[in-house]
Amino acid sequence: MTLSRFSEEVGEQGIYTGFYGGLFGEYAFGRAFALQPEVLYSRYGGNLGNIMVGRNGDTRNRLDYLNVALIGKVALMRGLTLDLGPEYARLLVGKEITTWEDGGPPKKDDITYRMRANDFYVAMGFTYRATRRLDVSVRYDLGLVKQDDAYGYKNNVIRIGAGFRF
């Protein structure tokens, strides 16, 4: 699950709930350090509230990314690691969806063209290895690039998930 919000206040901004999934590997260098490369498909966004002039409605942006990360994992105690590393994201599709309070049909716009195609993050969090095959993780991705020239916001994302090892 992803919980995302834009860095700058835009209207009555709220948290956008999305998802992510993908593949990862882990390469240990002794007992205290490992590298974890990842390739993920992620959905972020923002609930922007009523940003339309002259008509009441709620607008949300939905942004689909392909993410590639290289996470360094430092063992803190048995089963628990501190995770930190760079992450690159490529925007695949951006949509802006407005639903109207008066019940009219929703307005859907493709906003891919106005968004930055490339995004960079600093990823930081914790992973707990619950069993030999199951990891549980919480991570914060701090966006470094302004995504939209009109509003100047950056993506900020909390990821909560489980990883299965084969």
Keywords:
66% strand; mainly beta; elongated; 166 residues; Porin; single chain
The major β-sheet equals: 11 strands, antiparallel
Number of helices: 0
**Secondary-structure content class:** mainly beta
Uncertain stretches of 5 or more adjacent residues: none
Helix content: under 10%
Predict the CATH topology: Porin
State which percent range the strand residues make up: over 45%
Characterization of this structure:
The chain is mostly beta strands. It is built from no helices and eleven strands. The chain has one domain: Beta Barrel (Porin). Strands 1, 2, 3, 4, 5, 6, 7, 8, 9, 10 and 11 form an eleven-stranded antiparallel sheet that branches. A hairpin with a 7-residue loop joins strand 5 and strand 6.
Task: Summarize the model shown.
The protein is mostly beta strands and 166 residues long. It has one domain (2-164): Porin, CATH 2.40.160. It has no helices and eleven strands.
Secondary-structure map:
Elements: E1 2-6, E2 16-18, E3 20-24, E4 27-28, E5 33-49, E6 57-77, E7 80-100, E8 107-110, E9 118-129, E10 134-143, E11 155-164
Antiparallel strand pairs: 1-2, 1-11, 3-5, 4-5, 5-6, 6-7, 7-8, 7-9, 9-10, 10-11
